[in-house]
Amino acid sequence: MCGIVGYVGPDTGARPLDVVMEGLARLEYRGYDSAGVALVAGDEVYTQKRAGKLANLREALEGDTVPSAATAIGHTRWATHGGPTDENAHPHRGGADGKLAVVHNGIVENFHQLKQELLAQGVTFTSETDTEVAAQLLAAAFAESGDLTEAMRSVVNRLEGAFTLLAVHADAPDTVVAARRNSPLVVGLGEGENFLGSDVAAFIGYTKQAVELDQDQIVTITPTSHTVMNFDGTPAEGKPYEVTWDAAAAEKSGYDTFMEKEINDQPHAVGDTLLGRTDADGKLVLDELRIDEANLKDIDRITIVACGTAAYAGMVAKYAIEHWTRIPVEVSLAHEFRYCDPIVSDRTLVVSISQSGETADTAMAVRHARSLGALTVSVCNTHGATIPRESDAVLYTHAGPEIAVASTKAFLAQITACYVLGLYLAQLRGGTFADDARAVMAELHEVPDKIASLLTEMDRVKEIARFMADTRSVLFLGRNVGYPIAMEGALKLKELAYIHAEGFAAGELKHGPIALIEPGQPVFIVVPGPDTPNELHKKVVSNIQEIRARGARTLVIAQEGDEEVLPFADEVIRVPHTSPLLQPLLTVVPLQIFALHLSTAKGLDVDQPRNLAKSVTVE
Ligand code: F6R
User: Could you tell me the pTM of the whole model?
Assistant: First the structure.
Protein backbone atom coordinates (compact mmCIF):
# COMPACT_ATOMS: atom_id res chain seq x y z
CA MET A 1 0.00 0.00 0.00
CA CYS A 2 2.51 2.61 1.10
CA GLY A 3 5.84 3.30 -0.58
CA ILE A 4 8.99 3.26 1.51
CA VAL A 5 12.54 4.39 0.67
CA GLY A 6 15.72 4.39 2.75
CA TYR A 7 19.21 5.61 1.90
CA VAL A 8 22.57 5.80 3.61
CA GLY A 9 25.70 7.13 1.90
CA PRO A 10 29.21 8.26 2.68
CA ASP A 11 28.84 12.01 2.41
CA THR A 12 26.72 14.62 3.98
CA GLY A 13 24.97 16.61 1.30
CA ALA A 14 21.87 16.82 -0.86
CA ARG A 15 22.13 13.33 -2.36
CA PRO A 16 20.18 11.44 0.36
CA LEU A 17 17.17 13.73 -0.04
CA ASP A 18 17.42 13.55 -3.85
CA VAL A 19 17.61 9.75 -3.79
CA VAL A 20 14.66 9.44 -1.44
CA MET A 21 12.50 11.95 -3.36
CA GLU A 22 13.26 10.18 -6.64
CA GLY A 23 12.42 6.84 -5.02
CA LEU A 24 9.16 8.23 -3.67
CA ALA A 25 8.24 9.56 -7.10
CA ARG A 26 8.74 6.06 -8.52
CA LEU A 27 6.76 4.51 -5.67
CA GLU A 28 3.97 7.08 -5.54
CA TYR A 29 1.70 4.60 -7.32
CA ARG A 30 1.66 2.56 -4.10
CA GLY A 31 -0.22 5.28 -2.21
CA TYR A 32 -0.61 9.00 -2.58
CA ASP A 33 -2.61 10.36 0.35
CA SER A 34 0.41 12.05 1.90
CA ALA A 35 4.20 11.93 1.82
CA GLY A 36 7.14 12.71 4.05
CA VAL A 37 10.88 12.41 4.61
CA ALA A 38 13.26 12.28 7.57
CA LEU A 39 16.95 13.23 7.37
CA VAL A 40 19.56 12.55 10.02
CA ALA A 41 21.29 15.91 10.33
CA GLY A 42 23.94 16.40 12.99
CA ASP A 43 22.49 15.30 16.30
CA GLU A 44 18.94 15.90 15.16
CA VAL A 45 16.40 14.38 12.84
CA TYR A 46 14.75 16.77 10.38
CA THR A 47 11.33 15.81 9.10
CA GLN A 48 8.97 17.31 6.55
CA LYS A 49 5.59 15.82 5.64
CA ARG A 50 2.46 16.89 3.84
CA ALA A 51 -1.03 15.60 3.12
CA GLY A 52 -1.78 15.10 -0.57
CA LYS A 53 0.48 14.12 -3.41
CA LEU A 54 4.25 14.21 -3.48
CA ALA A 55 4.14 17.62 -5.16
CA ASN A 56 2.92 19.13 -1.86
CA LEU A 57 5.91 17.68 -0.02
CA ARG A 58 8.25 18.91 -2.74
CA GLU A 59 6.82 22.41 -2.42
CA ALA A 60 7.21 22.36 1.37
CA LEU A 61 10.83 21.24 1.05
CA GLU A 62 11.54 23.98 -1.48
CA GLY A 63 10.17 26.58 0.91
CA ASP A 64 12.30 25.39 3.83
CA THR A 65 15.96 25.33 4.79
CA VAL A 66 16.70 21.63 4.51
CA PRO A 67 19.86 20.50 6.35
CA SER A 68 22.56 18.36 4.74
CA ALA A 69 22.48 14.70 5.68
CA ALA A 70 24.02 11.33 4.81
CA THR A 71 21.01 9.26 5.85
CA ALA A 72 17.37 9.61 4.84
CA ILE A 73 14.06 7.76 4.83
CA GLY A 74 10.85 8.60 3.01
CA HIS A 75 7.26 7.51 2.71
CA THR A 76 4.26 7.88 0.47
CA ARG A 77 1.04 6.83 2.20
CA TRP A 78 -2.25 5.06 1.62
CA ALA A 79 -4.15 5.82 4.81
CA THR A 80 -5.29 3.03 7.11
CA HIS A 81 -5.25 4.35 10.71
CA GLY A 82 -6.13 8.04 10.65
CA GLY A 83 -7.13 10.20 7.71
CA PRO A 84 -4.73 11.68 5.16
CA THR A 85 -3.61 14.76 7.15
CA ASP A 86 -0.22 16.42 7.74
CA GLU A 87 -0.24 15.04 11.30
CA ASN A 88 -0.91 11.47 10.23
CA ALA A 89 1.61 11.56 7.38
CA HIS A 90 4.85 9.65 7.99
CA PRO A 91 7.59 9.85 9.29
CA HIS A 92 6.56 9.72 12.93
CA ARG A 93 8.93 10.64 15.69
CA GLY A 94 9.59 8.73 18.86
CA GLY A 95 11.03 9.73 22.25
CA ALA A 96 10.71 12.94 24.21
CA ASP A 97 13.72 14.31 22.29
CA GLY A 98 12.18 13.33 18.93
CA LYS A 99 15.51 11.92 17.79
CA LEU A 100 14.01 8.80 16.25
CA ALA A 101 11.88 8.71 13.10
CA VAL A 102 9.93 5.85 11.58
CA VAL A 103 8.08 5.15 8.35
CA HIS A 104 5.72 2.21 8.07
CA ASN A 105 3.75 0.18 5.57
CA GLY A 106 0.98 -2.14 6.77
CA ILE A 107 -1.09 -2.32 9.93
CA VAL A 108 -0.09 -2.92 13.55
CA GLU A 109 -3.15 -4.83 14.64
CA ASN A 110 -2.54 -4.62 18.40
CA PHE A 111 -1.72 -0.89 18.31
CA HIS A 112 -4.66 0.08 20.51
CA GLN A 113 -3.51 -2.07 23.40
CA LEU A 114 0.10 -0.90 23.00
CA LYS A 115 -1.03 2.70 22.84
CA GLN A 116 -2.96 2.36 26.10
CA GLU A 117 0.18 1.02 27.72
CA LEU A 118 2.23 3.97 26.46
CA LEU A 119 -0.44 6.51 27.43
CA ALA A 120 -0.41 5.07 30.97
CA GLN A 121 3.35 5.75 31.03
CA GLY A 122 2.68 9.39 30.14
CA VAL A 123 3.70 9.22 26.47
CA THR A 124 1.86 11.78 24.35
CA PHE A 125 0.83 11.28 20.73
CA THR A 126 0.50 13.76 17.91
CA SER A 127 -1.30 11.55 15.38
CA GLU A 128 -4.02 8.92 15.15
CA THR A 129 -1.71 6.36 13.54
CA ASP A 130 -0.56 2.92 14.63
CA THR A 131 2.89 3.94 13.33
CA GLU A 132 3.47 6.46 16.07
CA VAL A 133 3.00 3.66 18.61
CA ALA A 134 5.83 1.73 16.94
CA ALA A 135 7.96 4.91 16.90
CA GLN A 136 7.48 5.48 20.64
CA LEU A 137 8.22 1.83 21.45
CA LEU A 138 11.38 1.98 19.33
CA ALA A 139 12.56 5.17 21.01
CA ALA A 140 12.09 3.60 24.45
CA ALA A 141 13.90 0.42 23.37
CA PHE A 142 16.76 2.47 21.89
CA ALA A 143 17.05 4.45 25.13
CA GLU A 144 17.67 1.14 26.92
CA SER A 145 20.10 -0.56 24.52
CA GLY A 146 21.62 2.30 22.53
CA ASP A 147 21.49 -0.04 19.54
CA LEU A 148 18.91 0.60 16.81
CA THR A 149 18.96 -2.98 15.44
CA GLU A 150 18.45 -4.43 18.90
CA ALA A 151 15.69 -1.91 19.57
CA MET A 152 13.95 -2.97 16.33
CA ARG A 153 14.29 -6.64 17.27
CA SER A 154 12.69 -6.18 20.66
CA VAL A 155 9.84 -4.07 19.27
CA VAL A 156 8.86 -6.18 16.25
CA ASN A 157 8.36 -9.12 18.55
CA ARG A 158 5.63 -7.16 20.31
CA LEU A 159 3.81 -6.12 17.12
CA GLU A 160 0.99 -8.08 15.53
CA GLY A 161 -0.12 -7.67 11.92
CA ALA A 162 1.69 -7.04 8.66
CA PHE A 163 4.31 -4.34 8.51
CA THR A 164 7.49 -2.96 7.04
CA LEU A 165 9.20 -0.48 9.35
CA LEU A 166 12.19 1.74 8.63
CA ALA A 167 13.84 3.63 11.48
CA VAL A 168 16.63 6.20 11.84
CA HIS A 169 18.03 7.76 15.00
CA ALA A 170 20.15 10.87 15.37
CA ASP A 171 22.49 8.92 17.69
CA ALA A 172 23.07 6.25 15.00
CA PRO A 173 23.66 8.65 12.12
CA ASP A 174 24.96 6.31 9.40
CA THR A 175 22.39 3.57 9.83
CA VAL A 176 18.90 2.70 8.64
CA VAL A 177 17.25 -0.30 10.28
CA ALA A 178 14.28 -2.02 8.67
CA ALA A 179 12.03 -4.95 9.48
CA ARG A 180 9.43 -6.82 7.47
CA ARG A 181 6.57 -9.16 8.28
CA ASN A 182 4.20 -10.00 5.45
CA SER A 183 4.91 -6.69 3.78
CA PRO A 184 7.43 -5.89 1.02
CA LEU A 185 11.02 -4.71 1.50
CA VAL A 186 14.11 -5.06 -0.71
CA VAL A 187 17.69 -3.93 -0.25
CA GLY A 188 19.67 -2.18 -3.00
CA LEU A 189 23.44 -2.43 -2.95
CA GLY A 190 25.44 0.52 -4.24
CA GLU A 191 29.13 1.38 -4.14
CA GLY A 192 29.71 2.97 -0.75
CA GLU A 193 25.99 3.56 -0.37
CA ASN A 194 22.99 1.34 0.25
CA PHE A 195 19.26 1.56 -0.30
CA LEU A 196 15.97 0.16 0.93
CA GLY A 197 12.66 0.18 -0.91
CA SER A 198 9.19 -1.32 -1.00
CA ASP A 199 10.25 -2.51 -4.41
CA VAL A 200 13.29 -2.15 -6.62
CA ALA A 201 11.75 0.80 -8.49
CA ALA A 202 12.74 2.84 -5.40
CA PHE A 203 16.44 2.64 -6.28
CA ILE A 204 16.59 1.37 -9.86
CA GLY A 205 18.07 4.71 -10.96
CA TYR A 206 21.15 3.95 -8.82
CA THR A 207 21.72 0.20 -8.74
CA LYS A 208 20.45 -3.07 -10.21
CA GLN A 209 21.99 -5.18 -7.43
CA ALA A 210 19.21 -6.15 -5.05
CA VAL A 211 18.82 -8.45 -2.06
CA GLU A 212 15.62 -10.31 -1.28
CA LEU A 213 14.65 -10.69 2.36
CA ASP A 214 12.51 -13.32 3.99
CA GLN A 215 9.54 -12.71 6.23
CA ASP A 216 10.26 -11.82 9.84
CA GLN A 217 13.69 -10.41 9.12
CA ILE A 218 15.53 -7.26 10.10
CA VAL A 219 18.14 -5.58 7.95
CA THR A 220 20.59 -2.90 9.01
CA ILE A 221 22.23 -0.85 6.29
CA THR A 222 25.26 1.42 6.60
CA PRO A 223 27.15 2.94 3.63
CA THR A 224 29.31 -0.16 3.32
CA SER A 225 27.30 -3.06 4.77
CA HIS A 226 23.95 -4.75 5.01
CA THR A 227 23.36 -7.16 7.88
CA VAL A 228 20.33 -9.42 8.08
CA MET A 229 18.89 -11.15 11.15
CA ASN A 230 15.72 -13.03 11.96
CA PHE A 231 13.21 -11.66 14.44
CA ASP A 232 14.51 -14.23 16.96
CA GLY A 233 17.99 -12.66 16.75
CA THR A 234 19.67 -15.43 14.75
CA PRO A 235 21.85 -14.24 11.86
CA ALA A 236 20.48 -14.64 8.34
CA GLU A 237 21.41 -13.83 4.79
CA GLY A 238 19.38 -12.23 2.07
CA LYS A 239 19.27 -13.61 -1.44
CA PRO A 240 21.14 -11.36 -3.93
CA TYR A 241 19.82 -10.93 -7.46
CA GLU A 242 20.19 -8.58 -10.37
CA VAL A 243 17.22 -6.56 -11.56
CA THR A 244 16.63 -7.31 -15.23
CA TRP A 245 15.05 -4.01 -16.24
CA ASP A 246 16.39 -0.49 -16.02
CA ALA A 247 15.16 2.91 -14.93
CA ALA A 248 13.71 3.66 -18.37
CA ALA A 249 11.22 0.81 -17.89
CA ALA A 250 9.85 2.65 -14.87
CA GLU A 251 9.51 5.95 -16.74
CA LYS A 252 6.85 7.30 -19.07
CA SER A 253 9.12 7.28 -22.15
CA GLY A 254 7.37 10.20 -23.81
CA TYR A 255 3.79 9.09 -23.05
CA ASP A 256 1.56 11.41 -21.04
CA THR A 257 0.72 8.73 -18.50
CA PHE A 258 2.10 5.42 -17.29
CA MET A 259 -1.16 3.76 -18.22
CA GLU A 260 -0.84 4.84 -21.85
CA LYS A 261 2.73 3.64 -21.91
CA GLU A 262 1.79 0.32 -20.34
CA ILE A 263 -1.06 -0.24 -22.80
CA ASN A 264 1.46 0.31 -25.58
CA ASP A 265 3.90 -2.08 -23.86
CA GLN A 266 1.39 -4.93 -24.23
CA PRO A 267 2.87 -6.56 -27.32
CA HIS A 268 6.13 -6.93 -25.35
CA ALA A 269 4.36 -8.08 -22.21
CA VAL A 270 2.77 -10.97 -24.10
CA GLY A 271 5.84 -11.70 -26.25
CA ASP A 272 8.25 -11.70 -23.31
CA THR A 273 5.97 -13.91 -21.24
CA LEU A 274 6.08 -16.48 -24.03
CA LEU A 275 9.87 -16.39 -24.34
CA GLY A 276 11.82 -19.53 -23.52
CA ARG A 277 8.80 -21.72 -22.81
CA THR A 278 9.54 -24.34 -25.49
CA ASP A 279 12.52 -26.56 -26.32
CA ALA A 280 14.06 -27.11 -29.76
CA ASP A 281 11.31 -29.64 -30.60
CA GLY A 282 8.56 -27.18 -29.72
CA LYS A 283 7.72 -29.05 -26.51
CA LEU A 284 6.70 -26.88 -23.56
CA VAL A 285 9.27 -26.78 -20.77
CA LEU A 286 8.51 -24.81 -17.64
CA ASP A 287 11.81 -24.80 -15.78
CA GLU A 288 10.51 -22.48 -13.11
CA LEU A 289 7.76 -24.88 -12.08
CA ARG A 290 9.83 -27.08 -9.75
CA ILE A 291 6.90 -29.35 -8.90
CA ASP A 292 7.34 -33.03 -9.46
CA GLU A 293 5.77 -33.94 -12.82
CA ALA A 294 4.14 -36.97 -11.24
CA ASN A 295 2.34 -34.74 -8.74
CA LEU A 296 1.23 -32.38 -11.47
CA LYS A 297 -0.07 -35.27 -13.56
CA ASP A 298 -2.08 -36.38 -10.60
CA ILE A 299 -4.02 -33.22 -9.90
CA ASP A 300 -7.78 -33.53 -10.18
CA ARG A 301 -8.82 -29.98 -9.51
CA ILE A 302 -7.48 -26.45 -10.05
CA THR A 303 -8.48 -23.45 -7.98
CA ILE A 304 -7.39 -20.01 -9.10
CA VAL A 305 -7.16 -17.38 -6.37
CA ALA A 306 -6.77 -13.69 -7.23
CA CYS A 307 -8.40 -10.28 -6.84
CA GLY A 308 -9.74 -7.65 -9.21
CA THR A 309 -8.25 -7.63 -12.68
CA ALA A 310 -6.07 -10.62 -11.83
CA ALA A 311 -9.23 -12.57 -10.95
CA TYR A 312 -10.68 -11.69 -14.38
CA ALA A 313 -7.49 -13.06 -15.96
CA GLY A 314 -8.19 -16.22 -13.93
CA MET A 315 -11.75 -16.36 -15.24
CA VAL A 316 -10.51 -16.13 -18.82
CA ALA A 317 -7.94 -18.86 -18.09
CA LYS A 318 -10.60 -21.14 -16.64
CA TYR A 319 -12.28 -21.53 -20.02
CA ALA A 320 -9.01 -22.39 -21.73
CA ILE A 321 -7.49 -24.65 -19.07
CA GLU A 322 -10.69 -26.67 -18.69
CA HIS A 323 -10.96 -27.03 -22.46
CA TRP A 324 -7.35 -28.18 -22.89
CA THR A 325 -6.91 -30.33 -19.78
CA ARG A 326 -10.44 -31.41 -18.84
CA ILE A 327 -9.51 -30.65 -15.23
CA PRO A 328 -12.23 -28.72 -13.39
CA VAL A 329 -11.10 -25.16 -12.67
CA GLU A 330 -12.73 -22.91 -10.11
CA VAL A 331 -11.93 -19.21 -9.73
CA SER A 332 -12.17 -17.90 -6.21
CA LEU A 333 -11.77 -14.29 -5.16
CA ALA A 334 -8.80 -14.59 -2.83
CA HIS A 335 -10.53 -12.70 0.00
CA GLU A 336 -13.46 -15.14 -0.10
CA PHE A 337 -11.41 -18.30 -0.49
CA ARG A 338 -10.30 -18.70 3.13
CA TYR A 339 -13.77 -18.16 4.48
CA CYS A 340 -15.75 -20.48 2.23
CA ASP A 341 -14.46 -23.77 3.65
CA PRO A 342 -12.73 -24.57 0.34
CA ILE A 343 -12.53 -28.11 -0.93
CA VAL A 344 -8.79 -28.65 -1.28
CA SER A 345 -6.67 -31.79 -1.15
CA ASP A 346 -3.12 -32.78 -2.05
CA ARG A 347 -4.42 -33.32 -5.58
CA THR A 348 -5.58 -29.70 -5.87
CA LEU A 349 -3.42 -27.20 -7.72
CA VAL A 350 -4.00 -23.71 -6.37
CA VAL A 351 -2.86 -21.12 -8.89
CA SER A 352 -2.55 -17.61 -7.48
CA ILE A 353 -2.40 -14.69 -9.91
CA SER A 354 -0.94 -11.42 -8.72
CA GLN A 355 0.92 -8.66 -10.53
CA SER A 356 2.53 -7.32 -7.37
CA GLY A 357 2.91 -10.62 -5.58
CA GLU A 358 2.14 -8.68 -2.41
CA THR A 359 -1.67 -8.56 -2.34
CA ALA A 360 -2.46 -9.55 1.23
CA ASP A 361 -5.75 -11.27 0.36
CA THR A 362 -4.04 -13.44 -2.23
CA ALA A 363 -1.04 -14.18 -0.02
CA MET A 364 -3.38 -15.32 2.79
CA ALA A 365 -5.31 -17.53 0.37
CA VAL A 366 -2.06 -19.19 -0.75
CA ARG A 367 -1.02 -19.82 2.84
CA HIS A 368 -4.42 -21.30 3.60
CA ALA A 369 -4.23 -23.53 0.53
CA ARG A 370 -0.79 -24.78 1.57
CA SER A 371 -2.00 -25.48 5.09
CA LEU A 372 -4.70 -27.67 3.52
CA GLY A 373 -2.07 -29.61 1.56
CA ALA A 374 -2.58 -28.12 -1.92
CA LEU A 375 0.19 -27.66 -4.47
CA THR A 376 0.59 -23.95 -5.11
CA VAL A 377 1.79 -22.12 -8.20
CA SER A 378 2.16 -18.35 -8.32
CA VAL A 379 1.68 -16.42 -11.56
CA CYS A 380 3.44 -13.20 -10.67
CA ASN A 381 5.07 -10.15 -12.26
CA THR A 382 7.38 -9.18 -9.40
CA HIS A 383 10.58 -11.07 -8.82
CA GLY A 384 11.00 -12.38 -5.29
CA ALA A 385 7.72 -10.98 -3.98
CA THR A 386 5.96 -12.60 -1.04
CA ILE A 387 3.49 -14.76 -2.97
CA PRO A 388 6.00 -16.48 -5.32
CA ARG A 389 8.36 -16.97 -2.41
CA GLU A 390 5.69 -18.71 -0.41
CA SER A 391 4.42 -20.89 -3.26
CA ASP A 392 5.70 -24.30 -4.33
CA ALA A 393 6.44 -22.92 -7.77
CA VAL A 394 6.29 -19.73 -9.78
CA LEU A 395 5.58 -18.83 -13.35
CA TYR A 396 6.79 -15.26 -13.81
CA THR A 397 5.01 -12.97 -16.23
CA HIS A 398 7.50 -10.70 -17.94
CA ALA A 399 5.43 -7.56 -18.33
CA GLY A 400 8.07 -5.29 -16.77
CA PRO A 401 7.18 -2.88 -13.98
CA GLU A 402 3.55 -1.80 -13.95
CA ILE A 403 3.29 1.64 -12.39
CA ALA A 404 -0.21 2.87 -13.29
CA VAL A 405 -2.64 1.82 -10.60
CA ALA A 406 -5.02 0.30 -13.14
CA SER A 407 -3.60 -2.98 -14.39
CA THR A 408 -3.32 -3.39 -18.17
CA LYS A 409 -0.20 -5.11 -19.48
CA ALA A 410 0.00 -7.36 -16.42
CA PHE A 411 -3.53 -8.59 -17.26
CA LEU A 412 -2.49 -9.71 -20.74
CA ALA A 413 0.69 -11.27 -19.39
CA GLN A 414 -1.31 -13.12 -16.72
CA ILE A 415 -3.67 -14.61 -19.30
CA THR A 416 -0.66 -15.59 -21.43
CA ALA A 417 1.15 -17.27 -18.51
CA CYS A 418 -2.00 -19.13 -17.46
CA TYR A 419 -2.44 -20.35 -21.03
CA VAL A 420 1.14 -21.59 -21.08
CA LEU A 421 0.47 -23.40 -17.79
CA GLY A 422 -2.73 -24.92 -19.16
CA LEU A 423 -1.00 -26.13 -22.32
CA TYR A 424 1.85 -27.55 -20.26
CA LEU A 425 -0.61 -29.50 -18.11
CA ALA A 426 -2.37 -30.73 -21.24
CA GLN A 427 0.97 -31.91 -22.67
CA LEU A 428 1.86 -33.61 -19.39
CA ARG A 429 -1.39 -35.50 -19.16
CA GLY A 430 -1.52 -36.52 -22.82
CA GLY A 431 -4.88 -36.80 -24.60
CA THR A 432 -6.44 -34.86 -27.43
CA PHE A 433 -5.27 -31.39 -26.56
CA ALA A 434 -1.65 -32.38 -25.89
CA ASP A 435 -1.11 -32.39 -29.65
CA ASP A 436 -2.79 -29.02 -30.04
CA ALA A 437 -0.38 -27.35 -27.58
CA ARG A 438 2.15 -26.69 -30.31
CA ALA A 439 -0.42 -25.08 -32.62
CA VAL A 440 -1.82 -22.89 -29.84
CA MET A 441 1.68 -21.78 -28.85
CA ALA A 442 2.37 -20.86 -32.48
CA GLU A 443 -0.81 -18.81 -32.57
CA LEU A 444 0.03 -17.16 -29.24
CA HIS A 445 3.33 -16.05 -30.73
CA GLU A 446 1.36 -14.14 -33.40
CA VAL A 447 -0.62 -12.21 -30.81
CA PRO A 448 1.98 -9.49 -30.01
CA ASP A 449 1.94 -8.28 -33.65
CA LYS A 450 -1.83 -8.34 -33.67
CA ILE A 451 -1.99 -6.21 -30.52
CA ALA A 452 0.55 -3.82 -32.04
CA SER A 453 -1.53 -3.41 -35.18
CA LEU A 454 -4.75 -3.03 -33.14
CA LEU A 455 -3.10 -0.24 -31.13
CA THR A 456 -2.63 1.77 -34.31
CA GLU A 457 -6.38 1.60 -35.07
CA MET A 458 -7.74 3.15 -31.91
CA ASP A 459 -8.51 6.72 -33.06
CA ARG A 460 -12.26 6.16 -33.24
CA VAL A 461 -12.32 4.58 -29.75
CA LYS A 462 -10.52 7.66 -28.40
CA GLU A 463 -13.07 9.91 -30.12
CA ILE A 464 -16.00 7.94 -28.75
CA ALA A 465 -14.47 8.22 -25.26
CA ARG A 466 -14.15 11.99 -25.60
CA PHE A 467 -17.79 12.36 -26.77
CA MET A 468 -18.92 10.30 -23.80
CA ALA A 469 -17.22 12.36 -21.09
CA ASP A 470 -20.62 13.21 -19.54
CA THR A 471 -21.99 9.68 -19.60
CA ARG A 472 -23.26 8.46 -16.24
CA SER A 473 -23.52 4.74 -16.86
CA VAL A 474 -22.03 2.22 -19.30
CA LEU A 475 -22.84 -1.47 -19.58
CA PHE A 476 -20.59 -4.21 -20.98
CA LEU A 477 -21.72 -7.57 -22.34
CA GLY A 478 -19.71 -10.63 -23.23
CA ARG A 479 -20.04 -14.35 -23.42
CA ASN A 480 -17.66 -17.24 -22.75
CA VAL A 481 -14.13 -15.73 -22.61
CA GLY A 482 -15.73 -12.39 -23.50
CA TYR A 483 -17.65 -12.37 -20.21
CA PRO A 484 -14.63 -11.67 -17.95
CA ILE A 485 -13.51 -9.13 -20.55
CA ALA A 486 -16.85 -7.33 -20.16
CA MET A 487 -16.27 -7.23 -16.41
CA GLU A 488 -12.70 -6.02 -16.87
CA GLY A 489 -13.94 -3.24 -19.21
CA ALA A 490 -16.43 -2.17 -16.53
CA LEU A 491 -13.79 -2.28 -13.78
CA LYS A 492 -11.41 -0.09 -15.78
CA LEU A 493 -14.15 2.48 -16.32
CA LYS A 494 -15.21 2.50 -12.66
CA GLU A 495 -11.73 2.92 -11.29
CA LEU A 496 -10.46 5.44 -13.85
CA ALA A 497 -13.49 7.54 -14.78
CA TYR A 498 -15.65 7.06 -11.64
CA ILE A 499 -18.61 6.13 -13.84
CA HIS A 500 -21.13 3.51 -12.93
CA ALA A 501 -20.32 0.52 -15.11
CA GLU A 502 -21.31 -3.12 -15.03
CA GLY A 503 -20.25 -6.16 -16.99
CA PHE A 504 -22.72 -8.97 -17.63
CA ALA A 505 -22.74 -12.34 -19.28
CA ALA A 506 -24.81 -11.56 -22.38
CA GLY A 507 -27.02 -14.58 -21.77
CA GLU A 508 -27.98 -13.20 -18.39
CA LEU A 509 -29.57 -10.07 -19.87
CA LYS A 510 -33.06 -11.47 -20.15
CA HIS A 511 -32.92 -12.61 -16.54
CA GLY A 512 -32.99 -9.09 -15.19
CA PRO A 513 -30.38 -6.59 -16.40
CA ILE A 514 -32.24 -5.82 -19.66
CA ALA A 515 -34.55 -3.69 -17.52
CA LEU A 516 -31.67 -1.21 -17.29
CA ILE A 517 -31.79 -0.52 -21.02
CA GLU A 518 -33.41 2.78 -21.90
CA PRO A 519 -33.00 4.99 -24.95
CA GLY A 520 -29.40 6.13 -25.33
CA GLN A 521 -27.89 3.71 -22.78
CA PRO A 522 -24.39 2.94 -24.06
CA VAL A 523 -23.56 -0.76 -24.12
CA PHE A 524 -20.27 -2.31 -25.22
CA ILE A 525 -20.67 -5.81 -26.59
CA VAL A 526 -17.66 -8.11 -26.88
CA VAL A 527 -18.70 -10.32 -29.79
CA PRO A 528 -17.17 -13.81 -30.09
CA GLY A 529 -15.64 -14.57 -33.48
CA PRO A 530 -18.00 -16.18 -36.03
CA ASP A 531 -16.00 -19.43 -35.70
CA THR A 532 -16.69 -19.77 -31.95
CA PRO A 533 -18.31 -23.16 -31.24
CA ASN A 534 -21.95 -23.61 -30.23
CA GLU A 535 -23.20 -20.74 -32.40
CA LEU A 536 -22.26 -18.28 -29.70
CA HIS A 537 -21.64 -15.61 -32.31
CA LYS A 538 -25.24 -15.78 -33.54
CA LYS A 539 -26.54 -15.75 -29.98
CA VAL A 540 -24.62 -12.60 -29.12
CA VAL A 541 -25.77 -10.94 -32.34
CA SER A 542 -29.35 -11.66 -31.19
CA ASN A 543 -28.52 -10.07 -27.82
CA ILE A 544 -27.35 -6.94 -29.66
CA GLN A 545 -30.63 -6.82 -31.56
CA GLU A 546 -32.61 -7.19 -28.35
CA ILE A 547 -30.98 -4.25 -26.62
CA ARG A 548 -30.92 -2.08 -29.74
CA ALA A 549 -34.66 -2.63 -30.13
CA ARG A 550 -35.00 -1.07 -26.67
CA GLY A 551 -32.96 2.00 -27.56
CA ALA A 552 -29.46 1.03 -26.42
CA ARG A 553 -26.50 2.67 -28.15
CA THR A 554 -24.48 -0.36 -29.19
CA LEU A 555 -20.69 -0.19 -29.28
CA VAL A 556 -19.67 -3.47 -30.82
CA ILE A 557 -16.23 -5.06 -30.57
CA ALA A 558 -16.11 -7.56 -33.41
CA GLN A 559 -13.58 -9.47 -35.43
CA GLU A 560 -12.38 -8.16 -38.79
CA GLY A 561 -14.68 -9.44 -41.52
CA ASP A 562 -17.64 -10.06 -39.19
CA GLU A 563 -20.41 -8.47 -41.29
CA GLU A 564 -23.35 -9.86 -39.35
CA VAL A 565 -23.01 -7.31 -36.57
CA LEU A 566 -23.24 -4.32 -38.93
CA PRO A 567 -27.03 -3.81 -39.05
CA PHE A 568 -27.27 -3.61 -35.26
CA ALA A 569 -24.14 -1.67 -34.34
CA ASP A 570 -24.02 2.07 -33.72
CA GLU A 571 -20.24 1.75 -33.69
CA VAL A 572 -18.05 -1.17 -34.72
CA ILE A 573 -14.58 -1.53 -33.25
CA ARG A 574 -12.57 -4.10 -35.18
CA VAL A 575 -10.05 -6.54 -33.70
CA PRO A 576 -7.80 -8.90 -35.71
CA HIS A 577 -8.78 -12.52 -36.19
CA THR A 578 -7.65 -15.15 -33.66
CA SER A 579 -9.04 -18.44 -32.52
CA PRO A 580 -11.81 -18.04 -29.94
CA LEU A 581 -9.81 -18.70 -26.77
CA LEU A 582 -7.15 -16.13 -27.66
CA GLN A 583 -9.63 -13.33 -28.38
CA PRO A 584 -9.46 -11.79 -24.86
CA LEU A 585 -5.86 -10.79 -25.54
CA LEU A 586 -7.23 -8.46 -28.21
CA THR A 587 -10.78 -7.54 -27.23
CA VAL A 588 -9.74 -6.01 -23.92
CA VAL A 589 -7.45 -3.47 -25.60
CA PRO A 590 -10.16 -1.09 -26.94
CA LEU A 591 -11.84 -1.19 -23.52
CA GLN A 592 -8.61 -0.14 -21.80
CA ILE A 593 -8.16 2.69 -24.32
CA PHE A 594 -11.78 3.77 -23.87
CA ALA A 595 -11.43 4.02 -20.07
CA LEU A 596 -8.08 5.83 -20.35
CA HIS A 597 -9.41 8.46 -22.74
CA LEU A 598 -12.73 8.97 -21.01
CA SER A 599 -10.89 9.54 -17.74
CA THR A 600 -8.52 11.97 -19.47
CA ALA A 601 -11.47 13.79 -21.08
CA LYS A 602 -12.92 14.26 -17.58
CA GLY A 603 -9.62 15.75 -16.44
CA LEU A 604 -8.96 12.97 -13.94
CA ASP A 605 -5.64 11.52 -12.82
CA VAL A 606 -5.35 8.36 -14.89
CA ASP A 607 -2.33 6.90 -13.14
CA GLN A 608 -3.47 7.55 -9.60
CA PRO A 609 -7.25 7.28 -9.35
CA ARG A 610 -8.87 8.41 -6.13
CA ASN A 611 -9.00 6.11 -3.08
CA LEU A 612 -6.87 3.41 -4.69
CA ALA A 613 -3.30 2.16 -4.35
CA LYS A 614 -1.37 -0.14 -6.61
CA SER A 615 -0.50 -2.80 -4.16
CA VAL A 616 -3.07 -3.80 -1.56
CA THR A 617 -0.93 -5.13 1.27
CA VAL A 618 -3.67 -5.04 3.92
CA GLU A 619 -6.63 -7.40 4.17
C1 F6R B 1 -7.48 -3.04 -11.35
C2 F6R B 1 -6.37 -3.58 -10.58
C3 F6R B 1 -6.68 -4.41 -9.40
C4 F6R B 1 -5.63 -5.51 -9.21
C5 F6R B 1 -5.87 -6.25 -7.89
C6 F6R B 1 -4.87 -7.38 -7.68
O7 F6R B 1 -7.03 -2.32 -12.45
O8 F6R B 1 -5.23 -3.32 -10.87
O9 F6R B 1 -7.96 -4.93 -9.45
O10 F6R B 1 -5.70 -6.39 -10.29
O11 F6R B 1 -5.76 -5.34 -6.82
O12 F6R B 1 -3.56 -6.90 -7.65
P13 F6R B 1 -2.35 -7.90 -7.84
O14 F6R B 1 -2.39 -8.41 -9.23
O15 F6R B 1 -1.12 -7.07 -7.58
O16 F6R B 1 -2.52 -8.99 -6.83
Answer: 0.86
